Amino acid sequence: MDTSSLDNDTDKICQKNIDHNRALYIFYSSVVVLELILGLLLNVTVIHLFIFKLKFWKSKTIDIFLFNLVLADILLLIGLPVKAYNFQQCSEHKVVCKVQLFLQFLNRGASIAFLTVISIYRYYSVVHPGKSRVLRILRMSPQISVFIWVLLGILTIPAMLQSFIRCNISEKDEELTTIVLLREIVFFTQIFIPFFVLVYCSIRIIRRLKQKSVGDKTKLRRAMFLVTSVVFVFAVCFLPYAITRAVQLYKTGHVLPEEKDTVVKLYDGLICLSYLNCLLDPILYCLSSSKFKKLYISIYLPFLLEKVQPESAEDTGDD
């Protein structure tokens, strides 16, 4: 295979994207920059509270998982300037590209993994509180967190081994090598399996809360809203992105260049949408707690403090 010829073909596709879709890709870049600014602002302030106010390492099991979730989102956001740049330009530095890809695969995977572990922990705390053995294992949050980071670090290595992986999505067709196959298996597994786990846990938690709740409709509605919102955000941010990726892989080599260009543009747009998860995670998980929300507002938004009405603490297994 003539590698230089493939590189030239890829550069032509990328240059075509810039010439004919300039406004679209500038819009994509602007969206990424906006997500970066808002995401960092929210995640950094939240992680500041975890470290300096809540001292998460001495706190509840759920707080350690939440801290790692926010940390994964911050590390993912750090790579967004490269993504924004590559939406506007078709030039890249190979080392920077691979580092950005590694951060993207690792930290998106970590964000999904910790989100899933939190849902499983809440599921057992609410639905099966008597299964003390499982809960004892889940309460080993420091060990579980280290295991997740190490495992994902190993599984992410294939994303950096392929020399022709590019920071933009207008890449040349790949041969189905073992590394490519492993990379795609990891990619789809870490999205679809957690989604089904989240759906199952959410349904069982809602059913259990309906059985336990007697008269406290406000608390029940808040808990149900939180649980369903997590599934909704996950579905909106990741499922279209993953499905489009599957279509892109399936149609590689079976479509005209114009059709492939359309799929590439759609995929790029859904990547922007997937980064929205970094902005919504702190809101759904951290600020859903009345205690954490009041602490956050008192420190960063004190002018809203007088508008916050006392709320009963929500109990969805955050033990």
Written description of the protein model:
By secondary structure, this protein is mainly alpha-helical. It has one domain (13-307): Rhodopsin 7-helix transmembrane proteins (Rhopdopsin 7-helix transmembrane proteins, Up-down Bundle), CATH 1.20.1070.10. The protein has helices at 3-20, 22-53, 61-78, 80-88, 94-126, 132-138, 141-156, 158-161, 178-212, 217-251, 257-274, 276-286, 290-300. Helix 2 packs parallel to helix 12 (276-286) and helix 3 packs antiparallel against helix 12. It is globular and about 60 Å long. It starts with a helix and ends in a 19-residue tail after the last helix.
Explain the layout of strands and helices:
Layout: H1 3-20, H2 22-53, H3 61-78, H4 80-88, H5 94-126, H6 132-138, H7 141-156, H8 158-161, H9 178-212, H10 217-251, H11 257-274, H12 276-286, H13 290-300
Helix pairs in contact: 2-3, 2-4, 2-11, 2-12, 3-5, 3-12, 5-7, 5-9, 9-10, 10-11, 10-12
Radius of gyration: 21 Å
Between the first and last Cα atoms, what is the distance in angstroms?
57 Å
Q: Stretches where pLDDT falls below 50 for ≥5 residues?
A: 1-10, 163-171, 311-317
Mean of residue pLDDT values: 78
Overall SS class: mainly alpha
Count of extended strands: 0
H-E order: HHHHHHHHHHHHH
Main sheet specs: none
Number of domains: 1
> What do we call the CATH topology?
Rhopdopsin 7-helix transmembrane proteins
Total helices: the number is 13
Name the CATH class: Mainly Alpha
Shape: globular
What proportion of the residues form beta strands (DSSP E)?
under 5%
CATH superfamily: Rhodopsin 7-helix transmembrane proteins
What percent of residues adopt helix (DSSP H or I)? over 70%
The CATH architecture assignment turns out to be Up-down Bundle
